[in-house]
Amino acid sequence: MIIRRRLKTWVLVSLAGAVLPLTSGCGDDTGLSKRYAVSGTVNYNGKPVEQGQITFVPVKSDGTTRPANGLIENGRYSLTTAVPGDGALPGDYMVTVTSKQVDDSKVKETVAKYGGGGRQNEIAQATKSAKNLVPAKYELGDTSGLKATVKEQSNTINFDLTD
């Protein structure tokens, strides 16, 4: 009887030891639900947006959703929520796009002449005078008019921006 109980205990412990690593490896350390791949293109007046940033802002702010963002390069993007390339949580989003051309020549000149760091004045001036490559209305979720729904699957979501 004691041998049988020990054998059952050993079998249960062995099974738990074999199954637990399989189930615990399914997530990550972020504490967030499963994210799904989101990628696509961003065009402005029919041409790819060369550089910029795209942000998906959750429509509902219920504590279970998070914004996701990505860099736009040559008109293409993919989203990240917590770890690089992890995608976005499923749900509805307002979308913003920012694309600016910054003349950082003064910053580079100052750094070359005096060294790095402490050049906030030049950086602030360069940022202030940056040229929008897409209309400024796309920088805010309330004015962009861009919306997206991330589904529980791999998502391809394209955006065609106009004036």
Question: What's this entry about, in short?
Answer:
The chain is an alpha+beta fold.
Give a verbal description of the structure.
The structure is a single chain. This protein is an alpha+beta fold. The protein has a domain at about 25-100 and about 135-160: Immunoglobulin-like (Sandwich). Helices cover about 30% and strands about 30% of the residues. The protein is built from 4 helices and 11 strands. The strands form 3 sheets. Strands 1, 2, 5, 10 and 11 form a 5-stranded mixed β-sheet that branches. The protein has a 4-stranded antiparallel β-sheet with strand order 4-3-6-9. The longest helix has 23 residues, at about 1-25. About 20% of the residues are buried. The model is unreliable at about 1-25 (pLDDT under 50).
Global structural class = alpha+beta
Number of strands: 11
Overall pLDDT: 84
Question: How much of the residues is beta strand, in percent?
Answer: 25-35%
* Strand/helix succession: HEEEEEEEHHEHEEE
State the helix count.
Answer: 4
What is the radius of gyration?
Answer: 24 Å
- What is the CATH topology of the domain at 27-99 and 134-161? Immunoglobulin-like
Distance linking N and C termini? 82 Å
CATH class of the domain at 27-99 and 134-161: Mainly Beta
- Name the poorly predicted regions: 1-26
CATH homologous superfamily of the domain at 27-99 and 134-161 - what is it?
Answer: Immunoglobulins
Shape annotation: globular
Largest sheet: 5 strands, mixed
Helix content: 25-40%
